[in-house]
Amino acid sequence: MSTAPAPAGLVPGTGAAPARRQAIIEVHKLVKRFGDHVVHDGLELEVYRGELLSIVGGSGTGKTVLLRQIVGLERPTSGTIRVFGEDVMTLPPARMQALRNRWGLQFQRGALFSALSVIDNIALPLRELRTLPDNLICQSALLKLQLVGLSARDADKMPADLSGGMVKRVALARALALEPELVFLDEPTAGLDPMGADDYVALIRELREELGLTVVMVTHDLDTLVALSDRVAVLADRKVLAAAPIPELLHIDHPFIREYFLGERARRALTALPPPHAPSGEA
Ligand SMILES: Nc1ncnc2c1ncn2[C@@H]1O[C@H](COP(=O)(O)OP(=O)(O)OP(=O)(O)O)[C@@H](O)[C@H]1O
Ligand SMILES: [Mg+2]
User: What is each CA distance from 137 to 11, 35, 119, 191, in whole angstroms?
Assistant: First the structure.
């Protein structure tokens, strides 16, 4: 099945007013091979402005590789990827850099530079731009720190001195350093305890409302998935099997979807959905 369209003009996860559907990421006929290992084969995906799209799939199905290709860190074998209308595979370096400045990344591994303080980690993307004096960069980085619920007292701490939840927040603050329109989050709640994950979910909700962000998130965490996603793209069989709101996915007959969304853990998480969509008591 190809990518399912979003419901007409709605941004359900935010409860926001109807928005016009505008695809700001368009992945078409994507093929990605490492040697003879085919990771993606004819993958299609669109992400609409203002939505939070989650990507799920078994371990090794290519979720991180997909994000890396979208942001130009990994080259597709074939196919096209357009972000904000620009073809990331053919863009000259200067225009690619300008495009990169429109998104932020919080990646699965290597969250922070261990030798840099919190504030220097957050300031790094701005310093790399070389366009602002350092006092403005520090001010901006401090604002980002507060935006993610930390305070100036945390600014000079080193990554080793932070809790897991704080590391995620600082990584998110760095992803927001350039005030992006679009943010990629790869397993943002991995390693957090349930309360830490809940706090992170609340933070993402607030930031979406305040900043009007479009978010592409990879997560294994069902509670996070259910709490935040407008649509969920399911990676299976080297493709996006479907990209739709969770209630629509529940109707698709596929082993991964059955196992992932209809197992015992999923049934508990799905009770958080509005009543018409929550699973009934039966198997
Ligand atoms: N640079 C690389 N060279 C060779 N194979 C790679 C490379 N990067 C990724 N792969 C392979 O591509 C496949 C997809 O990897 P990817 O990291 O995208 O999986 P994932 O869906 O993010 O998994 P997880 O849920 O465990 O994070 C894996 O089999 C991985 O070993
Ligand atoms: Mg991954």
Answer: 33, 43, 10, 30
